[in-house]
Amino acid sequence: MDDLKEKVIEVLKTCCDPEIPVNVYELGLIYDIEVSSEKAVHIKMTLTSPACPVAGFLSSEIEQKVRNIPGVASARVEIVWDPPWSPSLMSEVARLELGLL
After folding, report:
1. What's the CA gap between 64 and 20, in Å, rounded?
2. 62-97 b/e (C-beta count within 10 Å ≥ 16 → b)
3. Which residue of 33, 82, 85, 97 has the lowest C-beta tally within 10 Å?
4. Distance (Å, rounded) from C-alpha 101 to C-alpha 48?
C-alpha cells in the first residue's frame, strides 16, 4: 500500500495550480491520501482560495491521473476548507521555486 501511495504522490507532483507554477503537493494543498485495502484512493485537498476558478478542473485532472496508475481501483478527490490553506503549508521546494527563500 505504501508503494501505491508513493506512486500517487509522484502523480500529484505533475498536477499544477495554473495560477501558481508549483505542483499541488509542494504547495501544501494535499492534506491526506488514503489507500484502502481494495486499492481505492481518497485524496483530501484544499485550494489556495474558496473562489479558485480552476477547482473543478484541478480535482478532475487529479482523479483522472490517479485512476491511470496501475493497481489503482478508483480515485476520489474531496475538496476541504478546514484548515484553510496558507503559504506556511508550502514545502521548501515550493518556496524556492516561487523565490520566497
Report:
1. 21
2. bbebbeeeeebeebebebeeeeebeeebbeeebeeb
3. 82
4. 20
Residue 55 backbone dihedrals phi, psi, to 5 degrees: -55, -55
C-alpha cell at 22: 508549483
Q: What is the DSSP letter of 100?
A: -
The answer to whether position 20 is within a domain reads yes
Establish if 58 belongs to a structural domain: yes
Reply yes or no on whether the pLDDT at 101 is more than 80: no
Number of domains into which the chain is organized? 1
The span from the CA of 1 to the CA of 81, in Å, is: 27
3-state class percentages of the chain: helix first, strand second, coil last, to nearest 5:
35, 20, 50
pLDDT tens digit sequence for 13-65: 999 987 788 999 999 999 999 999 999 999 999 998 888 777 788 999 999 99
Domain that holds residue 23: 2-85
In a domain, 65, yes or no: yes
